[in-house]
Amino acid sequence: MKSWNMPEIPSATQTGLAYDRLRGEILHGALMPGERLRASGLQDRFQLGLTPIREALMRLANEGLVEAETHRGARVSEASAAGFADLMATRRTIERVCLVQAMRQGDAAWEAEIITAQHLLARAALPETTRDRDTAAAWEALHRRFHAALVAACGSDWLLRFWNQMVDHSARYRKIRLLHHRDAVAEVRDLVGEHRALADAVLARDFDRAPDLMDAHLLATERSVARFLTDDMIDAKARPARRRAEGEP
Length: 249
Prior knowledge:
Blueprint: H1 11-27, E1 36-37, H2 39-46, H3 50-62, E2 66-69, E3 73-76, H4 81-105, H5 108-122, H6 133-151, H7 157-178, H8 191-203, H9 209-226, H10 231-245
Antiparallel strand pairs: 1-3, 2-3
Helix pairs in contact: 1-3, 2-3, 4-7, 4-9, 5-6, 5-8, 6-7, 7-9, 8-9
């Protein structure tokens, strides 16, 4: 008997498992922008109930990570150059405000987390191939920890809530570039150096340099990712996954 029929797994727990799995794959894993999400196929793959799968899809639709299609299930939200530019402009605005407030209010524990997060990120491996999703996800987790550490002391739950939402959506765009960071078009920068300079300026409470470094860092990432966001390139990245989802060879 399949595990999704086992009564000892409560429906609420199954919904949480389905949500976490889907969300992780959209942000850091195999699910690419525009890929179709069939509830029955996800039920078989995740070994979870159909209702929890549908509830998880609804939650993700409310977050803007999934788009519902009438009579056709759902798709991972599409990627576009214009949408990404709008997202990143909003994130740069919010991140600058958070960073300045964090530098004003941060304590020794905040400083220690920045140092630790930057150290771990500097030593994290990048994926060798587009199939190395686990390495990419591990790098992304440490990258998010570093940026979260920088703004953590801003003192506003609402600002951090908006910040987290922006980071979630930018992650699904950035993974396109991260998985292809060895391509010439990626034009990979010295990310270790950029992150070190950011950490140093923030810890020094340099209110002029730190926000400008952050803005430049995010803008450079935006420009790098945008090189992968032409319609043809997006379709080329997503086509194999779409074929799998739709049962094509």
